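Hey all, quick one. A colleague (J.T.) asked me to put the S-adenosylmethionine job into the tracker so the inputs and the C-alpha cells live in one place instead of scattered across chat threads. No bug as far as I know, just bookkeeping. Sequence used:
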Amino acid sequence: MPFGVYVHIPFCARRCDYCAFATWTDRAPLMGPYLDALRVDIRRAVERGQLPPATSVFVGGGTPSLVPAAALVSVLAEIPTAPGAEVTVECNPDTVDRALLDTYVAGGVDRISLGVQSMVPEVLSALGRSHDPDAVHRAVDAARSAGVRSFNLDLIYGGAGETLADWERTLDAAVALDPPHVSAYALTVEPGTPLAADEARHPDDDDQADKYLLAEERLSGAGLANYEISNWARAGHRCRHNELYWQQGDYLGFGCAAHSHRAGRRWWNLRTPERYIDAVLADRSTEAAAEELGTDRRRLEGLQLALRTSRGVPVDALDPADLDLLDGLVVADGGRLRLTVGGRLLANEVAVRLR
Ligand SMILES: C[S@@+](CC[C@H](N)C(=O)[O-])C[C@H]1O[C@@H](n2cnc3c(N)ncnc32)[C@H](O)[C@@H]1O
Ligand code: SF4
C-alpha cells in the first residue's frame, strides 16, 4: 500500500504577496530548533509504530532549499522509506546550487520541484519573485549534473501585467529546458494576502482560460501528458506523492501546519513553528484540529478528486440527466468519464453534478 510522508519547512527569504502558505521571513533563528523538533517528532512516530516505510516523501514549504542541506537531509534520514521511494524537495531557483543538490542526492532525494513561476523578468518582478530566468537555467543544469532523477517546474499564470505573449514565452522557455514534469497553476487570490486587498491586480477568468488552453497545447505538444488538471508529465515522471493525495491514500505530515490523513480521519498541526517546537519539546500532540470523513463524503470526495485526473470516474457516477447538460465537457470511454480540455476549465461545475 502506498504511504506518504509530508515535511513542512516554514521559512522563506521574502514573502510573495499572493501566498497564503504557513511560512515566515523573520524566523531564521528558529531553523535549528525547528529541524531538531522535526527529527524528534519523526523518531517518536517511528518508535510508536505509526510510521510504515514511506513510498513517497515530499518536503514542501515555504522554501525547504533555504535551510542548510545537511540539516535537511538529517531530517530525511529519520524517515523509513520503501525501496524505490520518491523523495521530493521543493526548491526556489535562486537557492539551488550543485553542492546543495549533491548533498540532497547523497541523502536519498531523487526529485526536486522548482518554483519557476515565469520565465519573463518583468512578470517575475511583478509577482515579487527574487530570481531571474538565468537562475532557473542554472538550477536545471545543476539538477542534471548532480544526477537528480526527476524534476518539476512550477509555473503560475494570470499575474497582473502578464500578456498572453509573456505566458507563451514562459511555456516555450520551460519546454526548451526539456522538463520531465510541469505544474501550471492559475494565480489564485487567497483571502488575507496583500494581493486580495488589491483588486486592480486580480486575475481575469477569461485570460486565465486562454492561458490554460495555451499551456495544454504547448505542454502536450512537447510530449508532456496532462494527468491532473494542473499537472503534465512524461511517462514515468508523474508525482507519486500527489497521486497518493488524489487517490485518498494515507499520509502523515510533520512540522507546523502539516496535514495528515489516515483511513478517513484528517488532521492538521499547530500553525506556527514556535508552537510546534514547544509541543514536541513537551512531548505533547502537535495536532491543532481534526475531522472524520463519513463514508458518503469520502466516496464523493474520491470521485471529485478522480475526475480531476486522467483516470476519470465510472460512467454511472453521473446522473444520466446531467450527462446531457455536460455535453462537450466530459467524454465516456471504456466505462469511464473523463474531462475534455474544455471540461477541465469547468471542473468545479462538473464536480457538483457528481453523486
Ligand atoms: C507554496 S510554494 C512553495 C515552493 C516555493 N517556495 C515557491 O514558491 O516556489 C508551492 C507552489 O505553490 C504555488 N502557489 C503559491 N501560492 C499560489 C497562489 N496564490 N496561486 C497559485 N499558485 C500558488 C506556486 O506555484 C509555488 O511554486
Ligand atoms: S517563496 Fe513560495 S512559499 Fe515562500 S512566500 Fe513565495 S510562494 Fe510562498
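Adding what we noticed when we looked at it: The CA atoms of residues 314 and 336 lie 4 Å apart. The mean pLDDT is 96.
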